[in-house]
Amino acid sequence: MFLHNLRYYLLSGFRVKSFLFWLMLFPMLLGTLFKVAFGNVYENDVLFKSIPTAVVETSENPVFRQVIDSLGEDDEPLLDVEYTDKDSAMKLLKDGKVSGIIFVDDKLSLSVTEQKMDQVILKTFVEQYSINEKIIKDTAEKDPSKIQSVVDKLSEEVSACKDIPMSHGDPDIYVQYFYNLIAMVAMYGSLTGLNVSLKNQANLSAFGARKNCSSTPKSVSLLADLTGSIIMQSACMILCVTFTHFVLKIDFGDRLPLVYVAAILGGILGVSFGFFFGAVNRFSFEAKTGIVMAVSMFSCFLSGLMMGQMKGIIAEHMPWFNKINPATVVADSLFSLNMYSDYSRFISRITTMLIITAVCTAAGIIVTRRKKYADL
C-alpha cells in the first residue's frame, strides 16, 4: 500500500507544470542570468592583472630597460609594457589603453589621467626605482667596492607579514549568489511540502476528503506523500547543483559530493517547513501558498540572494538570526565547504538543518494526524 501511494504521488507530482517550472526551469534560467551578470566581474575587477604601461625613452637607460625586462619574466608580471613615442603614448593614455606613461630621461617621470589603484602602483614603482637608483649612484661615487652588497640588499624582499591562506577554495565573492540560488531552490521545496498538507486535509481539497475516507491508514498515506515529496525535491536539488557546476562552470571546491549532500538536506528542510506551515493553520490553500512563498523569498533575501551584503548586515546587527534562517543556513553550509579546510562550520550548519527538519516534520505529522472532521 505504501509503495502504491508513493508511486502515484511521484507520477502525479512530476506532471504538475508549476512544479517543473519553479523548481527546475526557473532556477536554471536565474542561474544563467547570474552567470552572464557576474561571470567575469571577479576576474576583471578583483583579481590583479598586469598594468598596461607605455614607456617613452627620450634618453637611453639600459639599466631601467633591464629592470623592465626582468619584471616581464614573471608568471604574473607587474607591468605590461609597450615602448613607443610620446605622441602615440599620449593617444594610448587618452583612449584608456594604458594606465600611465613612464618617461625615461635623466630622471624618471610618470604621466597619468586618473588616480586609481593601477596609477598608485605605477607611482610607487617609479618612486622606488628612482630612490634605489640614487642610492646605487651615491655608493658608486663614495665607495665602489660596496656596490654589489648594496644591490643585494636592495634586491631582498623584506616583509613584516606572513602569507597565511585563510581558505582553500574559490575566493570569488560572486559565487555566493549561486550558493543562495541553491538555497532558494531548497526553500521552494516548501511548495511540495505544502502540497502534501493539502492532499491530506479534507477541508482544503476534494482529494483530501477522499483520502480521509479511504481505507488506507492516514499514517501510511501521509508517509508515502512525504517520501515522494522528498524524492522529488532531492531530484530538483541534484539537478540544480549539477547544472550550476557542470554547465555554468561554478567552482564549488573539491568536495562536490558533500555539496550534493548539503543541497539535498536543504531541500528536505524546505519540504518539512512547507508541510509544517500547511498543517498548523486554517488558512485557505491559496493564502497558505502566498504566505509560504513570501516567507521563503524573504528568507532568501536575508541570506543575500538579492543583495550580497545583506548577510553581513544581519551578522552585524542580529548574528543569531543567520544561524536559524533556513536559506542562510543552507547557503552557509555550501560556503563553508568551499572556503574552510575543516568541517566544524559545515557540521554545525548541517546539524541546524537536521534539527529544523525534524521539528517541522514531527510537528506537522502530529497536527495532521489529530485533525478530525464532523462530516465530509
Automatic annotation (TrEMBL):
Transmembrane segments: 20-38, 177-198, 219-246, 258-279, 291-310, 346-367
Entry keyword set: Cell membrane, Membrane, Transmembrane, Transmembrane helix
GO molecular function ontology, one term from the record: ABC-type transporter activity
A matching Pfam family: ABC2_membrane_3
Keyword match Cell membrane: yes
InterPro entries assigned to the protein according to its UniProt record, in alphabetical order: ABC-2_transporter_component, ABC2_TM
Naturally occurring in which organism (per UniProt): Ruminococcus albus (strain ATCC 27210 / DSM 20455 / JCM 14654 / NCDO 2250 / 7)
Any single Gene Ontology cellular-component annotation: plasma membrane
Major location category of this protein: membrane
Protein name as annotated: ABC-2 type transporter
Cellular localisation: Cell membrane
Membrane topology: Multi-pass membrane protein
ABC-2 type transporter transmembrane domain residues: 17-365
